[in-house]
Amino acid sequence: MKMLFKQRMFSWFDSYDIYDEYGNTMFVVKGQLSWGHCLRIFDAAGCPVGCVKEKIFTWMPKFELYTGEDNYVGCLSRELTLFRPSYHIDCNGWRIEGSFWEWDYDILAPSRHTVAHIAKELWNWTDTYTIEVADSRDALCALMVVLAIDAEKCSRYNHT
User: Fold this and answer.
1) What is the pLDDT of residue 57?
2) How many domains does the chain have?
3) Is residue 11 scored above 70 in pLDDT?
4) Pfam families from the xrefs (predicted)?
5) Which domain holds residue 66?
6) Per residue, what are the HEC states of the chain?
7) Do 134 and 115 touch, CB atoms closer than 8 A?
8) Ramachandran quadrant class, 133 (left: phi over 0; alpha: psi -120 to 50; beta: rest)
9) What are the pLDDT digits (tens) for 68-87?
10) Residue 63 in contact with residue 149, Cβ under 8 Å?
C-alpha cells in the first residue's frame, strides 16, 4: 500500500492531506493550538482516528501516539547523537533506520522485515513524503511515526 503525505501550503497550523496511490483522500491531519505539537488525524469521512502529541519539558523531543481519542499505543523520542538524528520508538516493537540527510528511512518490525519505507520528495513547495506500507493495517501507526518525525524536524529547524 502506498500513501502520499502532503503538507498544505497555506495553513496557520500544521495541516496535511494523506492520499492513497490513486489520489483518494485517506486521512486529513490538522494541527491545533497547544503547548508543543498536537496533530489530530481524521479519516476520509472526518471521524477522528488518531493523534500525535508532543510531550513538553522533556530533555529530548518526545511524541506520544494515540489511536481513536485517547488509546495510547506508544511514543517516539529523539536520541542524543552527534551527526545525524536517531529515534527510539516504543510502538509494536518497531525501530527506525534512516539516511544521513533524513529524507529516507524505514520502520522495521522485530523480525527485521520492513513495515514501511518513507521517502521525501525533494522538488515540492511543501513537505511531501511517499509512505510505502507492507500491511495496510499498519498504515495509521506508520503515519503517526512520520508525523512525529516531521514535527520534530520542524521544531529543530525553527529553533536553530
Assistant:
1) 75
2) 1
3) no
4) LOR
5) 2-158
6) CEEEEEECCCCCCCEEEEEECCCCEEEEEEECCCCCCEEEEEECCCCEEEEEEEECCCCCCEEEEEECCCEEEEEEEEECCCCCCEEEEECCCCEEEECCCCCEEEEECCCCCEEEEEEECCCCCCCEEEEEECCHHHHHHHHHHHHHHHHHHHHHHHCC
7) yes
8) beta
9) 978 999 999 987 776 667 78
10) no
| Phi, psi dihedrals of residue 2, rounded to the nearest 5° | -120, 135
Distance CA(118)–CA(18), nearest Å, equals 13
**Statement: residue 101 has pLDDT above 50:** yes
What is the rounded CA–CA span in Å between residue 140 and residue 27?
Answer: 9
Selected residue with higher pLDDT from 98 and 54: 54
Segment (H or E) for 44: none
**Grid cell of 153 as nine digits:** 524536524
Q: 131 pairs with which residues across the strands?
A: 3, 118
AA letter at 136: S
Region for residue 93 given its phi and psi (left: phi exceeds 0; alpha: psi -120 to 50; beta: otherwise) = left
Amino acid at 148: A
Q: Say which CATH number the domain at 99 has.
A: 2.40.160.200
